Amino acid sequence: MTSSTKAMKPILLTGCILAAAGLSVQWQPATAQSNGEIARASFNEDGQVMRPENWRSWVFVGAPLTPNALNGGEAAFPEYHNVYIEPSAFAHWQRTGQWADGTQLAKELTLLLQDGTCETDPDNGSCGQTSGQGYFQGEFSGLELKVKDTTRYADEPGNWAYFSFGHHAPPYAETAAAFPTDSCNSCHEGNAADDFVFTQYYPVLRAAKPSN
Q1: The pLDDT of residue 170 is above 90
Q2: Taking the model in full, what pTM does it have?
Q3: How far apart are CA 91 and CA 28, in angstroms?
Q4: Same domain, 19 and 71
């Protein structure tokens, strides 16, 4: 290792720490994010989207939960929804307040914690842990992806398409076909705050959106 390489390590580490704290740093890796391009999804010859790599390293924006116990035992989405946004798309949102062509949002599902470490409250489905009575994440149970592509999905509302790599524990499928338009788009079109994205439920996205 050269002396110059040794000198770079603390600089890079400092940059990571500052970025995690929400502070501005000058250094950026030489990726699509640094030159303003959007890192796009990959597709196979059949037009199916490829499962993204390292989605858990994308920008985590929140984890909504609508448990069965609070919805008459029949919640439409009873799992935690851990939502991640591909970093270059998130950076574009920060700059413009718009979702760029090529944006990818991943949603990984997790079941409620039910591993015998707590006694479940029959009235609301919560369980007691060290921090108190509440809801806690259990095992992974599915992976979905949402992609904006003005060319590939020119006829879809908002140019968005929705995919599932399986509603089960990993490993997930390597590819996925787009859902029919009526499966997801109608709900997003009628209720999402910003271009088919439910930004109203994610303070990270609200805080990142430019005010002008």
Answers
A1: yes
A2: 0.81
A3: 12
A4: no
191 Cβ neighbours under 8 A, 6+ residues apart? 198
Question: Which position has the token pair 């029919």?
Answer: 180
d(CA 123, CA 189): 34
Closest to 108 in 3D by CA, of 47, 188, 52, 34:
52
Q: How confident is the model over 75-103, as pLDDT tens digits?
A: 999 999 999 999 999 999 999 999 999 99
Is beta strand 127-129 parallel, antiparallel or unpaired with respect to 59-62? unpaired
CB atoms within 10 A of CB 198: 18
CATH number of the domain residue 137 falls in? 3.50.70.20
Hey, how many other C-beta atoms are within 10 angstroms of the C-beta on 37?
13
Q: How far is CA 103 from CA 13, 86, 146, 189, in A?
A: 28, 7, 8, 17
CA angle 107-206-167, nearest 5°? 10
96 and 1 fall within a common domain: no
Peptide bond connecting 64 to the previous residue in cis, omega within 30 degrees of 0: no
Gyration radius from the chain CA atoms: 20
Which structural domain range is residue 106 located in?
31-208
177 and 84 belong to one structural domain:
yes
SS3 content of the chain, % helix, strand, coil (to 5): 30, 25, 45
